[in-house]
Amino acid sequence: MIKPNDNKLKRLSYYNIPKIFLILVIVWFAITFIILPTITIITSSFYDGSAFSFNAFKKVLNSKRAMLAIKHSLITGVVLMFTTTIVGITQVLLTEYFDLKFSKIFRIAYMIPLVFTGVILNNGYLYVYGKNGILTGLLLKIFPNLNLNWFTGAFAVLFVMTFGCTHQYMIFFRNAINSIDNELIDSAKNLGSSQFQILFKVVMPIVKPTLITLIIITFQTGLISFAAPLMVGGKSFQTISPLILTFANRPNSRDIAAVLSLVLSVFQILLLAFMTWNESKGNYMSVSNSNKKLKKQKIHNPVAKVIIYLVAIILLIIQALPAVMVIISSFLDTQALSRNIISIEHFTLQNYKNVLVDSSNLDPLLRSFLFSGIAAVGSVLLMLLLVRLVMKSKSNKIIKSLEYFYYIPWLVPSILIALGYMMVYDRPRFLLFNQSVIGSQWILVIAYAVTVIPSTLRYLKSAYYNFNTNLEEASQNLGASSLRTFFHIVLPAVLPTALALCALNFNSNLAEYNMSAFLYPPGSETIGIIITQNSSSVATIDSKAVNMVYSVLLMLINSLVIYFVYGRGLKFSNKQSGFLEKNSRY
């Protein structure tokens, strides 16, 4: 006979076993793939193998190459704060604030960096402006003495990143402009203010908080830039991230790589602290109780109108030219590509056949599909469980503190964690069940998941907060188990958010390069690695043709994901879909 206390103990044990197992998995993942690699980098920066030491820091301070890289990273971040902000604000004003003809065409062109990003963006700019680029070939006919390497170094990096990062403004700043109450502008007009005064004294102060956040993000993007300095920077303009990769591949120099990674982390933490402080000030301006939709402003001055249209067209050409040329060139044969000829006579589908039929070209694409897909779904599932656990254990401070460990990848650059994997798990370890990351493909899936975990956690938690808990309580009062309540009540409520995050996480990691450059095993290259290798000046025409096809396929996939999340693919309510504006990584 079972006593009442025994029944209670039995039910309690059945309830606790899955929960305890879940907690152990979450703790193990955080320690193994986030905490330990980060701590290893920090400790290795102050440890020379025998005792506490600053030798690694002295090596960095005495290394002209390392100090120059830090300088270049700071220059990149500071310059982009001005150039990207000016271009980004201009593009938004041209498409959303001023009443221009063909504004939809301008908007599409300015949105191109949303789908034409990362390594494929840099590859496109190289194809147009590089040593063997189309524009370089045309310029040579006009200027025979032109330096073939004119598009390299600091100018090339800043040019590519300036126009590659403006999509952040086309998302966040555009929404801020569209949310302005038109009554404020009408009131300013009635008081006799000019368009110039309205723009700078009414409009800009309202969107100031958003603008400051974007400026900080832009500086951060320039500081940790990787693909652009590596592909178009040349030997004359190296930044911190590519140099970390160089030192990481030399076992005797990994302490220097660790220190440089720590430098990036310090900058990252300072920027996050500043952003948090700025948001806490809460300097939002609201002086109108109406909600009148912003009406586009007509330009009455004919000279100003000509100048504005001219600027709009120039920006359209700069933004659209690389992507358009890549798409067109993907259908040209190798003879036309080698001679920079664009003609219908050289039109072919052979390049696509070479990629989609040849396994050596198709495998990297499929591998990236598989890795990014598993990482996208895995990160969302893990964070769904973590958020559920935290929300159901609000009184338990130990369980609640688990989520803070998963925000660490927001505080440190991804290459620091990748370097940590190399340093900690370069041999079989107990935490990895006697496995090593060297020569292993599965570590890329983990790495991809770790990079998107913080944002996934944040937005899933927001979705949980928006969920009506009365529905869950009603389900349990009707006798449904916790598991059944979760699958039939809670999960459907957060499913749109989870699906959207899966799509965005997949999109962001599909052509990932930063962590892949550290961790990919030879013979198992991902699409980002292949595109970068094929972009070198010594690459064959066939390789460049393959790159064109890769770029078009990735743009198509990115466009479908953007449509799925932002367009009509999922009909979210405004409240449910507002969180999706986070997808702005360069």
Would you mind describing this structure in some detail?
Helix 17 packs across helix 27 (541-566). Residues 8-14, 283-290 and 569-586 have low confidence and may be disordered. The protein has helices at 4-45, 55-62, 64-97, 103-110, 118-129, 134-142, 154-164, 167-178, 182-190, 195-206, 208-223, 227-232, 240-248, 254-281, 302-329, 334-339, 350-357, 359-392, 397-405, 408-411, 414-424, 442-466, 469-477, 482-509, 514-519, 527-534, 541-566, 574-577. With 586 residues, the chain is mostly helical. The chain is globular. The longest helix has 42 residues, at 4-45. 72% of the residues lie in helices and 0% in strands. It starts with a helix and ends in a 9-residue tail after the last helix.
| Spatial extent as radius of gyration | 26 Å
Total count of helical runs of at least 4 residues:
28
Beta fraction: under 5%
* Strand and helix order: HHHHHHHHHHHHHHHHHHHHHHHHHHHH
* Biggest beta sheet summary: none
Fraction of residues in H or I helices: over 70%
